[in-house]
Amino acid sequence: DGGITQSPKYLFRKEGQNVTLSCEQNLNHDAMYWYRQDPGQGLRLIYYSQIVNDFQKGDIAEGYSVSREKKESFPLTVTSAQKNPTAFYLCASSAGTSGRANHEQYFGPGTRLTVT
Amino acid sequence: AQKVTQAQTEISVVEKEDVTLDCVYETRDTTYYLFWYKQPPSGELVFLIRRNSFDEQNEISGRYSWNFQKSTSSFNFTITASQVVDSAVYFCALSETLTGGGNKLTFGTGTQLKVEL
Description:
The complex is a heterodimer of chains A (116) and B (117).
Chain A: E1 4-7, E2 10-13, E3 19-25, E4 31-37, E5 43-51, E6 54-57, E7 64-66, E8 76-78, E9 87-94, E10 106-107, E11 111-115
Parallel strand pairs in A: 2-11
Antiparallel strand pairs in A: 1-3, 3-8, 4-5, 4-9, 5-6, 7-8, 9-10, 9-11
Chain B: E1 3-5, E2 10-14, E3 19-21, E4 24-26, E5 33-39, E6 46-52, E7 59-61, E8 64-69, E9 74-79, E10 88-97, E11 103-107, E12 111-116
Parallel strand pairs in B: 2-12
Antiparallel strand pairs in B: 1-4, 3-9, 5-6, 5-10, 7-8, 8-9, 10-11, 10-12
């Protein structure tokens, strides 16, 4: 089955620890994205990547880091510098080539991170 | 800056009622795309529809229909004869092209739809 997998579904960490969220896709999509969702709010873009070995900051990149060493993988690290890391994190991918904005994004099941 | 407004935070209906979810957007782009996504309790966003700015035809897919009006910058979503399984949060989103390809989606805050028996 083609799709996006995120693991784990629930993640608990102590304050001050870095944590890495996994995102893998087998849709052969070029573009991948990380969003954060807080209760009662829409999704906000953290980072995105159009091609391997390249990524760009989104609207709320502070306290986060990413890598894109393989086309199918786009892990997100939530660092201790992120002031309010508890949230629901969603990974997405899209075909997104040739500057066309019409490609819908497909989302993974999400990871709910709780930091105490 | 782009903006998407979903003024209805929560809507409750009884099964078989029709319900319309409102979406108003702001953009300076002349070409853009609009989307609707459904987020059931499981959390995963499910793509429902994409419309482009130069095609104002309304669209119907089963019990779902969409009304795109460029003059009022609105892209409303109607569910006919609602069912309990329609209960979810629905997001409207607006795209902009990113440098190097791909697109960025600006989401509204979502409308929680509750369909009761």
